[in-house]
Amino acid sequence: MEHRDRATGWKHAKLSGHKNEDLVKIRLDTDEEFATSLLKRIDKPYAHILHTTIGGLHETNVPSVNGRKTKSKTDLKIYLDTNEVINISIKKSLGGQVYFVKAGLFIDTFEKQFNTQIPDDVRRAINLFWAAADDAIDIIEKAMFQQYVSQAENGAKGFNGLALCDIEDGDYDSALSDIESGIHEAGAEDMQSLLFNEIVVYEKKLDFQTALQKAQEYLELYPEDKTVKKELAFLKTRV
Q: Is residue 157 left, alpha or beta, with left meaning phi > 0 and alpha meaning psi from -120 to 50?
């Protein structure tokens, strides 16, 4: 595969992507059924297309609603017999479309452009779609660990991951439940991490007596662990 740096790769994607504009223009100019279908989709079923022009390769800087300059973003212009001009931006492909606009900028621009207020639940959905919500990564991680839980070979790893998520959320009882489930499935590799996190949870719950007991049991299995040795010394000052 040919190696391209970011600038070269973007130029290649942009130029190759504009082939779609040519194809759409040809279909609109020569295929009446295709043109009729598009007009229905844009709620112009009674209009007729006079002609079309391609703008993507020749896009210019224009003022934006945010007070800045931006590209016109018009890949294709459709001129109708109703004296209307429809600007169309053609997405290159599901796999190839790149999102450069941040969620906040998209929301701000949309609201100014259409003089409207996006509801909170829709804002939430947009931020999740862009993975821009504060908890988006947590949701993605939990989904991944839930998938691990359903796999026999990764069950313990999944429960341990869910426990870490619960600890982050402050849901210590759920964390202990996940750890207990993980211990039942764990091999040697995952067991140490689960038992370590069990100590952490009890300490977070301020149950220092149980945390001390768990630390002592842990060190019987893993006597070289310096981190838990220090933790044991700390816990002894708390009970």
A: alpha
Provide the percentage of residues in the chain whose pLDDT is more than 70. 77
Q: Is 23 left (phi over 0), alpha (psi -120 to 50) or beta?
A: alpha
For residue 157, the tally of other CB atoms under 10 A from its CB is: 21
The candidate with the shortest Cα–Cα distance to 132, out of 166, 103, 107, is 103
For residues 198 and 196, give the distance between their C-alpha atoms in angstroms, rounded to a whole number: 5
pTM over the 0.85 mark: no
Per-position DSSP letters for 164-200, written without gaps between them: HHHHHHT-HHHHHHHHHHHHHH--HHHHHHHHHHHHH
Average pLDDT over residues 192-219: 94
**Alpha-carbon torsion (120, 124, 127, 133), positive or negative:** positive
Residue 109: Cβ-neighbour burial (10 angstroms; 0-12, 13-18, 19+) = middle
Are residues 118 and 107 in contact, defined by beta-carbon separation less than 8 angstroms? yes
Out of 45-49, 88-92, 166-170, which region has the weakest mean confidence (pLDDT)?
Answer: 88-92
Q: How many CB atoms lie within 10 A of CB 42?
A: 13
Residues 87, 91, 97, 99, CA torsion sign: positive
